[in-house]
Design brief:
single chain; alpha+beta; Arc Repressor Mutant, subunit A; Alpha-Beta Plaits; 3 domains; 4-stranded antiparallel β-sheet; 10 strands; 26% strand; globular; Transcrip_reg_TACO1-like_dom3; transcription regulation; DNA binding
């Protein structure tokens, strides 16, 4: 069976248009470059933004254009992290990036009211997630034993076999070294990022699941919201 957080993140991906994804990726690249400088080797946030953009097929030309345009960009973008309690033990983290927090907060509260969810205090929800590196490996022509043998010397916390992929988890600080070393060993990486992964999962009935899908869809369409993670597991 696939890991539950992979199922949950798949809900988001199904609802995103490519143009909307690219717009959010470009926004993150500009914000990262503006705050930490134009050199990705000296700016981990920019490096992560570029990696994610490439994984989502944003062209290198567009990526460089957004990096170069960061210094000229007059928008004053600020990050906001919201921790949210939902029905049936549902936990949600929303990352906003906006020049208008009031607009973001007003929209988010509107989405949450339909989900019957509320914004909590800092660390009230985040502690239920593990902030770590995740590397998804192509399962074709590779066994779990073979992958384990090839990565035995790397600081990997967990290696999981899913139906259609292998999943490697690392500490956030080790992520880039592990990912780059795996790539050097000609192991096919499907996608990789540093993200919040739930420690435990909750199941929802159909009614609450439909509300969650609508909430995620609203967040995906909102230009002030960059990403959402939840501890949703399966439909009861």
């Amino acid at each position: 069976m696939p890991r539950k957080h992979l199922i949950a993140s798949g809900i988001n991906k199904k609802q995103q248009s490519q143009a909307k994804v690219w717009n959010k990726l470009a926004k993150e690249i500009k914000a990262a470059a503006k705050v930490g400088g134009l050199n990705p080797d000296a700016n981990p946030r920019l490096k992560a933004a570029i990696d994610k953009a490439l994984q989502n097929n944003l062209s290198r030309e567009s990526i460089q254009k957004n990096i170069n345009g960061a210094e000229k960009d007059k928008d004053s973008l600020t990050d906001y992290l919201y921790e949210i309690y939902g029905p049936k033990g549902l936990a949600i983290i929303v990352q906003g990036l906006t020049d208008n927090q009031n607009r973001l907060l007003s929209s988010l509260k509107g989405y949450l009211s339909k989900l019957k969810a509320e914004i909590g205090k800092p660390n009230s929800v985040k502690n239920n997630f593990n902030y770590c590196g995740q590397i998804i490996i192509d399962k074709n022509m590779l066994t779990e034993d073979s992958l384990m043998e090839q990565t035995l010397d790397l600081p990997i916390n967990e290696l999981i076999e899913n139906d259609d992929c292998f999943e490697i988890l690392t500490n956030a600080k080790d992520f880039y070294n592990v990912r780059d070393e795996i790539s050097k060993r000609n192991i096919n990486i499907i996608e990789s990022e540093i993200k919040y992964i739930p420690n435990d999962y909750v199941n929802l009935d159909n009614e609450n699941f439909e509300k969650l899908e609508k909430f995620l869809s609203s967040c995906e369409e909102d230009d002030d919201i960059q990403w959402v993670v939840t501890n949703f597991g399966e439909v009861e």
